Amino acid sequence: MTQTITAMIQTHPTEIRYDRQLLEDCIAACVECAQACTSCAEACLSETEIDPLRRCIRANLDCADLCTTTARVLARHAGYDAAALAGLVLAACAEACRSCGDECSSHADMHRHCEVCAGACRRCAEACERLLATL
């Protein structure tokens, strides 16, 4: 996946106004986090006791949607002044990832999938914050 992201950024015919490495890292982290959150929500739904996981499932689904949107917006970085919109989605994504990571962490002692997801959420929040700091 990262090879494709790198190749697409390197071969883009127009100027990219972002730090290319931070952009690559952020898109990859968003895609990874969206996948982890989707998988975690599915795993939570497969647990025998779903009631204590309802908040986690909702956080996973919201986070996955925001991560997917953020990756898609960041992939469209040319043709207009995208920095304003990128800043908004990066901030929203970082907040969703922090919130989801905290929620998943609260279940990590009983559910390994929540521990894995919390790590992906933290990495994504950090990647979004690093890119956001350069806009």
Automatic annotation (TrEMBL):
A Pfam cross-reference name: Csp
Position of the signal peptide: none
Protein name, UniProt field: Four-helix bundle copper-binding protein
Biological source species: Nocardioides aromaticivorans
